[in-house]
């Protein structure tokens, strides 16, 4: 298997800290180019990390150099237009979450990617966590039996990001799109990727643009896109999602609340013969007719590293990624269903 040449599109906060670092640590990867609408930043980061090329657009890159795969780390609404350009050239694609913001656009891209035999992976990082993998192993060994309910929650105290994340045009939505995507994906994947039947949801802008003292926030690197501090998205969302097999996910998400902050995703999974909880990782079942709680012992892995290495492996072997574009699309359909239900103040039935 040959080594691969890759480019990162959007070398902002996450790409420099995560994608670039782990791509450069992977012995099978040559990072050939960085692309960013902020060309000065692309050039500066390329120089700092010894990367041969820096460009302002993906078209300029295609005209001057070849890559086997791109990793798209730009604002959410730009993911699919960029992915389409890569797929047209037969180039494999990693798309940061969420896959996109518009279902028709995503479906058009997926058709193109299939025609061109392009691999698509979506950055659902939490699937690579060790504690999550342990729960998945219990599920795959059928320890829990039929899973019928998941309560999935992530509340931040003061965690609204700064920049384009709060601008609907660029982000497609707020807390639900940004962190709800991870929480919903985790519950949906662990419950066996069921087909959605109906969604009832409410999205709310509760605290909006707050000015709380002595708190920090995740901040986008792009000053131009962040101008004006637009805040026209939700910072709270709650949803009740029914699936065709009778299972239910109850979702609660917040960027900012007057309440207690969760230390990571809170998940309770209920099955007919057992269940699981995050965080801390706890397994519930019966042994010899006795109710038991198990706390598995494990060493934490480097979740982002495992995610990036998985993408590289899939591009090199042409294996299907753990989170392909179709799954990313199913999650987007549910997220948009929650927004629709909130807007029409009714349950959305599929
Ligand atoms: N998996 C995770 O846990 C995780 C964590 C953080 C961010 N993300 C995702 O990563 C993406 C980027 O987030 P970020 O925090 O790095 O944002 P950011 O604003 O810091 O970085 C985005 C970069 O893209 C550039 N850009 C914008 N539009 C472009 C275009 N059309 N062409 C080329 N470059 C363009 C910007 O100049 C900026 O440098 C988002 O989709 C976000 O949801 C995922």
Number of helices: 10
The residue fraction in helices comes out at 25-40%
Poorly predicted sequence stretches spanning 5 or more consecutive residues? none
Structural class, please?
Answer: alpha/beta
Order of helices and strands: EHEHEHEHEHEHEHHEEEEEEEHHE
How many beta-strand runs? 15
Would you state the CATH class of the largest domain? Alpha Beta
Instruction: Count up the domains.
Output: 2
**pLDDT averaged residue by residue:** 97
Kindly report the CATH topology of the largest domain. Dihydrodipicolinate Reductase, domain 2
Strand content: 15-25%
**Terminus-to-terminus distance:** 43 Å
Q: For this structure, what is the CATH homologous superfamily of the largest domain?
A: Dihydrodipicolinate Reductase, domain 2
The order of strands across the largest sheet is: 14-13-12-11-7-10-9-8-15
Present as ligands are: nicotinamide-adenine-dinucleotide
Compute the CA-based radius of gyration: 20 Å
């Amino acid at each position: 298997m040959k080594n691969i040449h890759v480019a990162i599109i959007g070398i902002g906060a996450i790409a420099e800290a995560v994608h670039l670092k782990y791509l450069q640590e992977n012995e099978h990867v040559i990072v050939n180019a960085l692309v960013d609408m902020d060309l000065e930043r692309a050039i500066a980061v390329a120089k700092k990390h010894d990367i041969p090329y820096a460009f302002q657009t993906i078209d300029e890159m295609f005209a001057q150099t070849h890559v086997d795969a791109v990793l798209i780390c730009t604002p959410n609404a730009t993911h699919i237009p960029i992915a389409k350009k890569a797929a047209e050239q037969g180039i494999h694609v990693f798309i940061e979450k969420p896959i996109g913001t518009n279902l028709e656009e995503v479906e058009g891209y997926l058709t193109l990617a299939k025609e061109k035999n392009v691999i698509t992976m979506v950055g659902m990082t939490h699937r690579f966590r060790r504690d999550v993998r342990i729960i998945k192993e219990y599920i795959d060994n059928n320890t829990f039996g039929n899973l019928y309910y998941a309560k999935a929650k992530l509340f931040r105290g003061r965690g609204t990001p700064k920049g384009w994340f709060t601008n609907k045009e660029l982000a497609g939505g707020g807390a639900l799109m940004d962190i709800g995507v991870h929480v919903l994906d985790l519950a949906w994947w662990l419950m066996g990727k069921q087909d959605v039947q109906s969604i009832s949801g409410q999205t709310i802008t509760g605290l909006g643009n707050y000015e709380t003292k002595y708190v920090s926030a995740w901040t986008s690197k792009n000053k131009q896109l962040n101008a004006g501090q637009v805040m026209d998205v939700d910072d709270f969302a709650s949803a009740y999602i029914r699936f065709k097999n009778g299972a239910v996910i109850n979702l609660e998400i917040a960027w900012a609340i007057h309440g207690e902050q969760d230390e990571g995703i809170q998940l309770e999974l209920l099955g007919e013969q057992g269940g699981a909880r995050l965080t801390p990782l706890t397994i519930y079942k019966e042994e010899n007719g006795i109710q038991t709680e198990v706390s598995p012992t494990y060493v934490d892995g480097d979740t982002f590293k495992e995610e990036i290495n998985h993408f590289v492996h899939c591009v090199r072997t042409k294996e299907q990624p753990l989170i392909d574009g179709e799954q990313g699309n199913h999650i987007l359909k549910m997220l948009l269903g929650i927004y629709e239900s909130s807007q029409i103040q009714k349950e959305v039935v599929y």
